[in-house]
Design brief:
With 444 residues, the chain is of the alpha/beta class. It is built from 21 helices and 16 strands. The chain has a five-stranded parallel sheet, with helices on both faces. Strands 9-10-13-8-14 form a five-stranded parallel sheet. A two-stranded antiparallel ribbon has the order 4-5. The radius of gyration is 26 Å and the shape is elongated.
Length: 444
């Protein structure tokens, strides 16, 4: 196979030479142009694997050139080179479709990482429709945006209500992109104790504070080369927002207890169910950080706006539950299906999953009947508890613990005869088997 070919555009001979030499050592051939007119001519003559371009050129604006490339060569990854301090211009280029950016003076380690990522852009080994189920216009549009954003390295802000599947979208962006072979590190920002946040994000060295008995790498280091997903980013306190902004802009972190910065190479994705724009207006979230993480926004629609997907989604979730818990196959009765189709799901997909997971344990035959859902009407047709729920008390965990104790008591009384225990509990044998698997008691 022939070596990949890069197009380098810069009016400074020293920069062109530096880039060409660096790429040559990476087994990447290159052709250089000193202006936009020459670069357009080269694009017509050769098929390039990556383009590296300065944003300030003698015969035109580099941002306009990004628009030109997006129109005529949309599959070509382009990284822009900008003067230090011109972050707004770099962000504008990312919004228009640039793959990534470098600042002058060019850091060769960052350059090599960008080139490597750009050359790794590939078609995913899975069908996005297998993960993001549905054929509504909203879901088809979302899948299309995910595919496009996966090819970029720009920070993406994922907005949407609780339970819509924001982490699923983040994982798809990662898995479809050039970093898929490296780590995807999800972080629930609202679940980290405030006093441990700096250590969790940036790591620490032994003895840096009471309890630091050994060196520990932070989440940025764990995601190095891969993707860092900051879920519920709105929950970050102001002092961490400042440090996070610097880490994102400089692509370096400083572990607690050290004076040395460590370079990190991550793709940043973030999400929250809260309105970040209003939090910025209220002074609760830094505007500069907001602009940095919200280079590109993608919205995950609530379930009520994609109701035509419900029948397909219900079948998909039921099949997964049957597979995960080794249950006999179950289907929805017509009455039960109509009941589910008429509900508006304030808890979105997570709530639907919760309802079906509970209903499958209550049904006695091969069909989930209306009565199986009626038993859930008052208690469970509410937004499902999850990592985005407010407060420390988790009702689902509490109820699961009670259920576990009742099952264990029934099993002990029946001398671990599952059929007898199920009868004592007033549930079917299948339902007991499902609950044992769900609660992690099957082996016991």
């Amino acid at each position: 196979m022939s070596q990949p070919l890069a197009l380098i555009i810069d009016d400074e001979p020293d920069i062109r030479e530096l880039l060409c030499i660096t790429l040559e050592r990476m087994q990447v051939d290159s052709l250089a142009a000193c202006n936009l007119d020459e670069s357009r001519s080269l694009l017509k003559q050769h098929e390039f694997s990556i383009c590296l371009t300065d944003l300030r050129l003698p015969d035109g604006d580099g941002v306009d050139f990004i628009r030109y490339l997006q129109k005529h060569y949309p599959q070509l990854p382009v990284a822009v080179i900008t003067a230090h301090g011109s972050m707004e211009t770099a962000i504008q280029a990312l919004k228009l479709g640039a793959f990534d950016f470098l600042t002058k003076p060019v850091d060769l380690e960052s350059l090599r990482a960008i080139v490597k990522n750009a050359l790794n852009v590939h078609d995913a080994g899975f069908d996005p429709a297998d993960r993001l189920v549905g054929e509504s216009a909203a879901i088809r549009d979302l899948r299309k945006k995910i595919g496009k954003l996966a090819r970029s390295q720009a920070p993406v802000y994922i907005s949407g209500e609780s339970g819509t599947g924001k982490e699923l979208v983040a994982r798809m962006i990662h898995d479809l992109g050039p970093r898929s072979a490296r780590s995807f590190v999800p972080v629930n920002c609202g679940a980290i104790p405030m006093e441990l946040m700096e250590s969790e994000f940036f790591g620490h060295i032994k003895g840096s504070f009471t309890g630091a008995v050994s060196d520990k790498e932070g989440l940025f280091q764990a995601a190095d080369g891969g993707t860092l997903f900051l879920d519920e980013v709105a929950e970050l306190p102001q002092h961490i927002q400042v440090k996070l902004l610097r880490a994102i802009q400089e692509k370096k972190i400083r572990p607690v207890g050290t004076h040395t910065e460590i370079p990190v190479n991550i793709r940043l994705l973030s999400a929250t169910h809260r309105n970040l724009g209003k939090l910025v207006e209220a002074g609760e979230f830094r505007q500069d950080l907001y602009f940095r993480i919200n280079v590109i926004e993608i919205h995950v629609p609530p379930l009520r706006e994609r109701s035509r997907d419900l029948p397909t989604l219900i079948d998909h979730i039921l099949n997964r539950l049957v597979r995960d818990y080794s249950c006999d196959e179950v289907r929805m009765s017509d009455d039960a299906l109509q009941k589910l189709l008429s509900y508006d799901y304030p808890g979105n997909v997570r709530e639907l999953e919760n309802i079906l997971e509970r209903a499958i344990t209550l049904c006695e035959g091969e069909y989930i009947q209306l009565d199986d859902l009626e038993l859930l009407n008052n208690a469970n047709l509410v937004p499902a508890a999850g990592p985005e729920a407010d407060g420390d008390f988790n009702l689902d965990n509490h109820m699961a613990e009670i259920e576990k104790q009742l099952i264990l008591e029934a099993l002990e009384k029946s001398r671990w005869n599952k059929t007898t225990a199920a009868s004592c509990l007033g549930i079917s044998f299948r339902s007991l088997r499902y609950r044992l698997k769900k609660l992690g008691l099957e082996d016991e």
